[in-house]
Amino acid sequence: MNIQIFANKEEASQQAFILIKEALDQNKLNFGMMTGESPKLFYQMLRESDLDFTQANSINLDEFYGLGEEDEHSYHYYMEKHLFKFKQFNQTFIPNGKNYNLIDEIDRYEQILADYPRDIQMLGIGVNGHIGFNEPGESFNSTTHLTRLAETTIGTYQNYFKGLERPPEYAYSMGIKSIMDADQIILLAFGAHKAKAVRDMIEGPVTRKVPASILQNHPNTVILLDREASRLLNS
Ligand code: GLP
User: Fold this and answer.
1) Could you tell me the pTM of the whole model?
2) Which residue out of 34, 128, 145, 151 has the highest number of ligand 1 atoms within 8 Å of its CB and is therefore the one to mutate?
3) Of 30, 130, 145, 226, which one is the catalytic site residue?
4) CA torsion angle for 20, 25, 26, 27 (degrees, to 10)?
C-alpha cells in the first residue's frame, strides 16, 4: 500500500486529481467512480479542469436498491450533479436500482465490468471498514450482488435519507473481487471519524470483518488521507 498523508482534504483531493490526469495522459480510459462526501472536492477539481473525458468510461461502484435516477438520493443523481452534467464521458455505467430482477441486473453489470476493465478504481471507506457496499462479513470472492446495508451504514445515512418514506435497506454493489480486479485503486479517507477504519485497513489483519483490509493484498493501492484520518496509524 502506498500511503500518503496530507495536511488537509484539499491537498489529498489534489493528489487524486493529479493521478487521474496522469492516467488520462497515458491513455487510460476506464475509471471506476465512487460517491459520498469524500470525493466531492475531487469531483469539483475534475469539473473545473480542462481534462477531456470524451473518450473515457465511468463505471460506478454501487447504487441503492429501489432508487431511480430521478430520485435525488440516488447515486445516479449524485453523479449527474457532481460530474456528468459538466464533463462528457464516452459512456457512464451505474447499477440500476430500479431493476428488481436481481439476476438480470447482476449479469448486466458483470458484463460491463468484463467489457470495461478498470484502469483505476476510486474508493472511499465506511466507518465500519466497508468498501462500495461490501459490509463486514462479505466474502473476499464476491462479485456484483445485492447487499443488505449494515445498521451502522444506515445510521450514517440518516440525514441523507431524510424525506424518504422508506429509506433503502439494500444496494447493488460491485463485489470485493470486482474491486480488486482494477489495475490501480485510489482510496480517499478524510476526517477523525474515519481514523479507526483507516488504521484497521492498513495495520490490522486481513479479515472479512474489515472489508477494506483486503486492499493490503492489492499490488497497486494508493491511500490518500488527511491528517485526521491518519491519526491512529502507528507508523
Ligand atoms: C458509502 C458508499 C461508499 C463510500 C463510503 C464512504 O456507504 N457505499 O462507496 O465510499 O460509504 O462515504 P463518505 O465518503 O460519505 O464517508
Assistant:
1) 0.95
2) 34
3) 130
4) 90
Q: How many CA atoms lie within 13 A of 91 on its CB side?
A: 9
The catalytically annotated residue of 30, 62, 76, 145 is: 62
Question: Which residues fall within 8 angstroms of residue 99, CB to CB, at 6 or more apart?
Answer: 105, 108
Cα(42) to ligand 1 centroid in Å equals: 14
And the C-alpha cell for 199?
488504521
Per residue in 53-68, pLDDT tens?
999 999 999 999 999 9
In this predicted model, what pLDDT tens digit does every residue of 150-208 receive, in sequence order?
A: 888 888 888 888 888 788 999 999 999 999 999 999 999 999 999 999 999 999 999 99
CA of 123 to the centre of ligand 1 (A): 8
Q: Where are the alpha helices (DSSP H) in the chain?
A: 9-25, 40-47, 75-79, 102-115, 151-156, 176-180, 195-203
* 135 given a catalytic annotation: yes
Cα 97 from Cα 65, distance rounded (Å) = 4
pLDDT value of position 161 = 86
Establish whether 130 is a catalytic residue: yes
Q: Which residues line ligand 1 (CB under 6 A)?
A: 34-38, 61-62, 124, 126, 132-133, 153
